[in-house]
Design goal:
The chain is α+β, with helices and mostly antiparallel strands. The chain folds into two domains: 164 residues, Chloramphenicol Acetyltransferase (2-Layer Sandwich); 229 residues, Chloramphenicol Acetyltransferase, CATH 3.30.559.30. Helices cover 38% and strands 21% of the residues. It contains 13 helices and 15 strands. A six-stranded mixed sheet has the order 5-6-7-2-13-12, sandwiched between helices. The N and C termini lie far apart (59 Å).
Length: 454
Amino acid sequence: MSSELLAPLDLAFWHLESAGHPMHLGALAFFAPGPGSRGDEHTLELLAERAAAIPRLRMRVRDVLLPVGGAAWAAAKDFDVRRHVRHVRLPDGDSDGHFAAEATAIAGELMEQPLERGLPPWEMYLLTARPGGPFAVLVKLHHALADGMRAVAIGAGIFDEIADARAVGVRRARAVPPRSWLAGPWRAAGFARGRIEELGRAVGVGASVVRASRFDPRGVPALCAGSSGTRRLSTAVLDLAGVRQVRRAVGGTGNDVLLATVAGALRRWMVDRDEPLPAADPRALVPVSRRRPGSPPGSGNKLSAYLLALPVSDPDPRSRLDAVRTAMDRNKAAGPSRGAGALAVLADQLPPLAHRFGAPLAGGAARMLFDVLVTSVPLPRSALSLGGCPLREIYPMAPLARGQSLAIAMSTYGGQVHVGLVADGKAVPDLDRLAHGLSEELDALLAAASTDSR
């Protein structure tokens, strides 16, 4: 793969990282034993072989002279996949449920650790316990390498179905030409016009961001606690049929139902903690992809976001869903490139030097804008497997911004919605209780929808 400059948003994610705030995405996938399984060592070899065959995973970040402050992706000449793919043996539990709990706890510890910056920024861990039993794979990809959709496209290369298709030449990746910020003379006029238009958009977004910022944020104490550098993970499984049943009865989208479910779960969690409900509802940052279908792997992060007040102060599940629907309809009418949530669009307009030196200041601004990240990550609809072992569950995990204690990511697979919760381990020690509240809240929405349909 040719060398290419990091896009402005990729560069922002690269420089936002610190030892206590690693900026990697993750996914924890659980596999059941299958007839094609040939043992842990074979699975480890298979992971390493398939990861090494993904061109994007052989790239590292290096500084460049031009543009000033910029960086580029370049092939790692000393690439060794064994430095990225590792095996972790867990204590042999007496049940599959015990293994899942142990794997989730270990994954939390592994997610605390930043990726080594001199290497291609990714890692995979094979988590096993007893021979012939279930196993898990933890994938870590730096946010500079991929947004959620691109992370799926890259990480999917480990699965049998995708790897086999690539082996026979199906869906070959397009070559990525080198990128430069230096326009040729024949493009100078068009380039100037484009930058002027971008500057105008940036001013509009910047003004929206300033208006929406809370310079005296007083939200939920646990969601705005100081960072401890620790990570705790928890997971939840929601019935997709139930989500669709609520959507059919009430209207809106499945994502509206899931966001209302998050709002209700947060309310339950706060009440259980004996915390007073906040005077102002906590705000969620809801990422939106701006990626066009078929865009090449090297096209960088393509993100914007909506801001959504999660109606935790409302005691009625149906009313909470109505509030979410109304707010999301308003966001969609404005579009993903406008409004206070479009921070990523603003980041795309800044020069590399601004990201390199402004990242520490920008990193602390997240707390003034939102309280929790809630994102949906699309997955392939077909059944997936690794070495003949079927994928049963897969939980996406989002990074925590500086000043944030909780991030919630959701993916749909196999008729279920898998929810991955990442929290600061000290600020949110009872994360499992919040995860349990998600199922309780969906049940409440189902009951409300059933009442409405009578």
